[in-house]
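Lab notebook, bench 4. Continuing the backlog of folding jobs that were queued last week. Each job is logged with the same field layout so the records can be merged later without manual cleanup. Today's entry covers Disease resistance protein, a 883-residue chain. Filled in by technician R.K.

JOB TYPE: sequence-to-structure
TARGET: Disease resistance protein
LENGTH: 883
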Amino acid sequence: MASEAVVSFVVGKLGDLLIEEARLLYDVRDQFEWIVGELRRMQCFLKDADAKQKEDERVRNWVKEIRDVSYDAEDVIDTFILTQTAQASRRTRRRPFLSLKRYVCIVSELATRHRVAKKIQHIKMKIGDISSSLHTYGIRDINDGGQETRLNIRRRSYALYEEPDLTGMQESMKTLKEQLINKEARRCVISIVGMGGSGKTTLTKEVYHDVRENFDCHAFIYLSQQYGIRDVLIRIIECVMRLSPDEMQKSNEDLTERLRDHLSKKRYLVVIDDIWTKEAWDQLKFILPDGLNKSRVMLTTRNKEVALYADRSSQPHYIRLLNEDESWELFHKKIFPIGVVFPLELMETGRKILEKCCGLPLAIVVLGGLLSRRDMTFSAWTRVLNSVTWHLAEDSNRCMEILALSYYDLPHYLKPCFLYLGLFPEDYEIKSKELIQLWVAEGFIQERGNEMKEDVAEDYLEELIGRSMIQVARKRSNGSVSTCRIHDLLRDLSMSEARQVNFFGIYGDNDATSSSSSLRRVALHRNVDEHEIINCSAATLRSMLCFSDSSFRLSRLLNRGGKLLRVLHVDIAYLQGNNLPNEIGEEVHLRYLRVDGIRSLPSSLKRLSNLQVIILSRGGTLPSAIWDLERLRHLYAYQWDIDGHPRLNNFKNLQTLCLEAGSWIEDGLDKLTNIRKLGVTGDLSSHHKALSDAIEKWCELRSLTLYNSSSIPPFVSFAHHQNLYKMLLEDSPIENLPKMPPHLAKLSLCETQLKQNAIEILEKLQNLRILYLKSNSYYSEKMICSSGGFPQLEYLLLYCNDLKDWTVEKGAMESLKKVELSDCRHWTVKEGAMKSLEEVKLFNCSHWTVEEGAMQFLKEVKLSSCDNLRADVPKHVQDLLEH
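JOB STATUS: finished
OUTPUT FIELD FOLLOWS
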């Protein structure tokens, strides 16, 4: 299945290059178009071939050949563009009277074209051989059906593999039963959503058996992805009514009518296990009428979108992974009979094995069953610990194949995006913006009308989350995904699939792919020897991601032929010499550049005409060559200034701009209408008008950060900024708070010296969820939060040195979950205020008054430097203080 993803990606990338680099490819364009067309035609056969290759070595070789020829075509076209760009650069630097050099250059260009022509001819011959093998190996076009038979059989058999254990699911059972037997008259669709192996079917079966007697008739059916509607009709009919053999032979239309008529008069319960698509529900809903008799349909799915589509009025029930205690309970049950105590000498090793399961019930059941058959000795369990991944993949119940069903079901455009996640270290929390920018730079994101590729990529991310392939780690204040992670077993799956197709290799993670001779991407984990890095196959390398503190000389890698890089992501590692080598300018394909710890960039940067993303840290000076990068989309360079005269008019594609304040602000900043994030550090006193005029025109602005500024422009209004959800304004007084954006969700202020009238403005913001009022942000002795104020606020940090009295009135801050308060002499919470508050942190506070009926759900109180705190609080708060 990975081969289909790789070829689809390569074909898409080559098609984009034919458009983007039309000038450079002029002489060979027709030949490359023929190759792309042939590869696109072969895509139609790859899905069938991928399904067959496990059973047939000939087909496996055919798949490898088409994958290799795709890579060959990518190498040829990328190398040709590299050569043409270099020659064009030399021509522009050459003096007119040096005719000998001009002659040598012409000869060099002819030699290049000759080499490319030979390589293209070789690729065309290989494609011809591959095409002639299609019928020999019995490979069919995916459109003629039948190619997913094996996949369907596996789906059906794996659906039967469910351990009848409900550890950690009791609350879910209770909730689902209540939904199924409540008094709502309409036919409700109740969906259970979760990743493969999370226990959806186990839970559904138990709930079904417990409540089915409350219904006049009931049916439980499993739905394969390539289901037949007649098969579904017959299975439901067999469960809910009796028809003679002759009647069962009638047409689908007749059977549907009979079934609908029967069910419309009954209170029925139908469970559809493992539904994969919206289209499947569109067909099935006509079989299941709404007779307003309290009927229920229960679905299980890995795809959130299917659940929401089936019934917009019913909230899907999401299966969570087991916590540490629940995981241990299930693990214990699977290894030892009831009543047998876990041996003390095996407990530490057992917990290390359990950690690898990350709370996934299926993995716990598989490993628990495996250990139950092993000797109860430290050495036997240690051997299992050292080969956990292999055991999960090779177990007779095929745990990894169950998880792989979700991967096989992904559309081709999502498969490389999923595989890419395996590059990140285990348990790594991935920033969504970073991941999206990497996907775009790699060429994974397809064009979709006039949409920004970043928006399309965000939809891809949401779809992978909805399909339970990625877990949300943290959300932003506006509800979008801030960080995500991948379950360890799904990461193992992505690495396994990637290994088969040379999609990437990992150094420092015991990964076999690192020895491959034709890797496209490498990731460095932990400490890696420089010699090992330099010896990787630089000639085919497209991406290098560093997550270790290894030191290496990038110039050595570039000099070994690594001229086709698209991504250089140096997260923690440092480059020897603390700077980028001048040779970086030869990486004409580079789209993404992230390096930490350097103070300057070479002037050769201007030759990187394809560069889209630059991420720098620590501060320094950018060369004036930065202005030549017309395709730049994101520049993160806080506390970096720019040398030379600014030319902002070249940055038409820029969406993110984070820089030290400077003369560039005066150079047509308002023309950058695609800006979504602006971050400026340093003195703004000379640029008030230019900055405020620009921000006034930016309709797409989503995030605004101004700090260390000493003087913030006197903004009049942000009321028309519908997309602006995050603002950080620090280190400068604000005389009058401007009208705030209507959808502002996060606000951070420091040294702004606001008064009570500002609080009266802020508490009316209907979407504000996070508020930081840091040192001297509020400059008054009293603060009052009135009834109904801050209706959506969930987190408040209040560090105000001069605050003597803070009063929260009844009905204020009803959604607040956590508050951190520092240096307040008296905090009064009126009756009925802060109803949802769960956690309080107090630092250097003197007096705390809480009236009865306030803070009813408080769970935790933390005190620091509050030795003499006077607390006039109800018993439930006093108990927390004493605890």
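OBSERVATION: The longest helix spans residues 99-136.
SIGNED: R.K.
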